[in-house]
């Protein structure tokens, strides 16, 4: 059974998603500013995106306020006129919102790798994204001659206007093209990292979360076609409010997810202290860590070293897997050469003896034995 009034559903979905999208921006800024301490231009763009997204939400509220989501026969002429005006405003502002989201993503990519080819591709994509914005704006502002015919077609019977289906579909297709490019762009860089296939897929999954926005964009084309063929414009625009909220907020969460992952690792214990995380085999928990028995008090190193007695107890423990930040992996890959992901280890000493001093003493013992 179809909803006769889409407004409650549209309000609920748009508000919920706006809260999630806004929260993801604040979490990103906190992570970059206080945990990773790597605040950059993409984060500045994220702050700007916070303002732009708020404006987008206001426009969706104005649609609903003037009657979108309700059948046309229940609205008066003044409401229909307001819907027409806000439809043009959303048409222009929606393109700009997507431009900001994509630029934030691409600025993030510039930090991931310093490889010239990758950097060039990112800059080309940024230029393409800007070109598509200009094309979409030109279509919006030049769709009718004279311009006032967009809002008052009854006053301009001789006006020349573009085909409405072209005006609706072309911007969405251009939007999907840039979405796909942005999703595909980092794949070669990720796949060149020396780590397990499972980890590569995990990294791509984090970055590729924006694929959900691409799928929603495909659904949006269906709604746009309904808007073209149906005379019940206000009701169809109620569906458009829902789709626009889904598309924009999922894209925003996708932009912020790679940075927020570092906060997630911190919360779930992605890194642990060396002392507390080290457990020897004697404890019965063999998955937590390893104890180097050669460093136990009273043990001997090689044939006759007394290093153990004088240097105290040492443990080497495995840290939890998954603590490698996807952003850090990219950054290292871009600084030249190959990197290899291995399990991190932490070495602790009960009496704070430097590892370099131990190696020096061990070398002296070996020389003494050879003598």
From TrEMBL:
Pfam short name (any one): Fung_rhodopsin
Membrane-topology annotation of the record: Multi-pass membrane protein
Taxonomy, superkingdom: Eukaryota
TM annotation in the entry: 12-31, 43-64, 92-110, 122-142, 162-191, 203-223, 235-257
Major place of residence: membrane
Keyword Zinc part of the UniProt annotation: no
Domain Rhodopsin: 27-265
UniProt keyword terms in alphabetical order: Membrane, Transmembrane, Transmembrane helix
Similarity comment: family membership: Belongs to the SAT4 family.
Entry protein name: Rhodopsin domain-containing protein
Species the sequence originates in: Lophium mytilinum
